[in-house]
Amino acid sequence: MARNRDAADKSTQPGNGEANAAPTRAIVVVPVLTRPVATDETSRPRLTRSPQARHDEAVGLTRAIALDPVHSLVVTVNDPRPGTLLGSGKVAEIADLVRESEAELVIVDHPLTPVQQRNLEKEMNVKVLDRTGLILEIFGERARTKEGTLQVELAHLNYQKGRLVRSWTHLERQRGGAGFLGGPGETQIEADRRILQDKIVKLKRELETVRRTRDLHRAKRKKVPFPVVAIVGYTNAGKSTLFNRLTGAGVLAEDMLFATLDPTLRRLRLPHGTPVILSDTVGFISDLPTHLVAAFRATLEEVVEADLVLHLRDISDPDTAAQAEDVERILADLGVDATDDRRVIEVWNKIDLLDEANRERLLGAARRDRRHGPVAISAISGEGLDSLFAVVEEYVSGELAELTVTLAPAELAHVDWLYRNGDVISRTDNENGGVTLVLRATESAREEIRSRLGGGSAKESPDE
Q: Is the model's pLDDT at 297 over the cut of 70?
């Protein structure tokens, strides 16, 4: 990608008088296959995405790394060509668009084989990037921590390794062999592949060190047993906005695909005093490259190890059902069953963007089954967060119940803790200087109260 920005970068040289380089001009092509070829024979049929939704997402991905999509088009592909994916007429049409718009890059929102990529570049006389390559570029630009950089670099190298198969003719040259018994020597393609493999092995060693460090951090957290709550969801579902709203963290939150990449963890105290660790993770996307899933496994293990997973959905998006299915597929690849309502809560975000009729319908559905149904919220306005807090606390600490606690004068030091870890409904000051409190507390808090007071001074109220 850096090569494609060379022309634009020249504008930043001294004497040009421009403060910023012009963005690379790109044409976005969205192939819609009428008979999609299944890449996984065991996978279940996917929900059909509208061409417009795929188009909008492809343009959004392009803009996510400051490219300028000067033209975009949806192309129906009835018969995918092995050599170019697209038909010869459509390839020629796009080549004309490249010349007319002076584009420097063509984005094809579909995985391309190395041969298809090479042939399209030859026919259009411009650099071509497929969906996998574009997502890798975005992740490469978003990575901020050493861990994120390593993971993206590993995914890049695995992607490039697959491109070294008849991709460039200069790789067919051979170098001379060593010694009299040596053969014709290794070809340039073999040398490049060996160099890439050496780098991959080195990066895997470094990431193994990262994985061991994460394991140590998890082990330390388990010694202080705070439940871990992970937020997952399709990219741009509002994960970072919700994370910031709940924790006060300063994680970047913008209306942009993959605005944040590196995971963030913060401690959060729920309304009834339950402490949890909240984890913000990288956004998921349809057809997420397998290279990335493998490279980011160390990061995504935070989701696997989480006690509770919040599956955040942009309920205002017309494609929300298909997005949810994509997230569920990736979670399944990680070993997390998204249908397990004992561990996964579905959260419907952005209800503030709904019209009144849809809003009431969704809120009604959410209210009918608060325990196992979805929780409707707006991370921007804060609407519904009280319900989300209540459901999360019930999941990690048990149901709320009423408790009557009688404290002797010598036990009054516990009053402050009781106020911080329960909802005090009433307080009675006794004649002997003690106090009787009626409060609502979670199951774990009730157990802690009995442990602190020896059990005799704390009695649960009978069911009404």
A: no
